[in-house]
Amino acid sequence: MHVQTMAAVAWVALAAGLCSIAQAQGIYSCVDAAGRKITADRPIAECIDRPQREINPSGTVKRVVGPSLTAQERAAQEQKDKAAAEVRAREAEEKRRDRALLLRYPSRTVHDKERAEALDQIDVVIKAASKRTTELAGQRKAIDADFEFYKSDPARAPASLKRRLEENDSSVAV
C-alpha cells in the first residue's frame, strides 16, 4: 500500500508541474475568416493573416501578435521604422546640442560677455584688413607712378616692377 501512495503522490506532483507550465504560457485567441473565435496555447495557424491576442492566466491581454507581413509590407514597415529611428536620433542630437549650449552658457550674462568678446575679435580683424588694404593702395600708387614711364610699351618695363605689380594684385585679392 505504501508503494501505491508514493505512486499517487508522484502522479499528483507531475500533474501539478504540467499545470504550472501550462499556466506560465499565454493563451492565444483570434477570430478566423469565418468569424469563429479560436483559442489555443500556441500561435494559431488559421489566424496567421490577422492579429492574435496573447492572454495572461489572469485574463488580461499580454500582447497582440500582428499578422505575418508580405515582402512589400515588411519593406514598408522597415522603411517606416528606419524613418522613426532617424527622427529619434535627430531629436536626441538636438537635445545633446541644447545641453551643451546650456553648459557653455549657463546664464544670459555669460552669453553676452562671450558674444561681445567674439565681436571685438572680429572688429580687430576687420581693422587690420582695412589697414592692410590702405597700405596696398599706397603701394599701388607708387607702382603706377613707376609704370608711368612705360605706358607706351608696358613690355619694356623691368621684371622687378612687373613682379611688384603682380604681388600687389595678389595681396589685394587675398
Topology:
Layout: H1 2-24, E1 27-31, E2 37-40, E3 52-55, E4 61-65, H2 71-104, H3 108-147, H4 159-173
Helix pairs in contact: 3-4
Summarize the structure in short.
This protein is of the alpha+beta class and 174 residues long. The protein has four helices and four strands, in the order H-E-E-E-E-H-H-H. It is elongated.
Describe the protein.
This protein is α+β, with helices and mostly antiparallel strands. The chain has 4 helices and 4 strands, in the order αββββααα. Helix 3 (108-147) runs antiparallel to helix 4.
Main sheet summary: 4 strands, antiparallel
Distance between the termini: 110 Å
Q: Quote the beta fraction.
A: 5-15%
Question: How many structurally independent domains?
Answer: 3
Which consecutive residue ranges, at least 5 long each, have pLDDT under 50? 7-23
Give the class from helix and strand content and strand pairing: alpha+beta
The oligomeric state of the chains shown is single chain
| Mean pLDDT over all positions | 83
Helical percent range? 55-70%
Query: Globular, elongated, flat, extended or rod-shaped: what is the shape?
Result: elongated
Number of helices, where a helix is a run of at least 4 consecutive DSSP H or I residues = 4
Q: What is the gyration radius calculated from CA atoms? A: 43 Å
How would you write the strand order of the largest sheet?
Answer: 2-1-3-4
* DSSP, total strands: 4
Q: What sequence of helices (H) and strands (E) makes up the elements?
A: HEEEEHHH
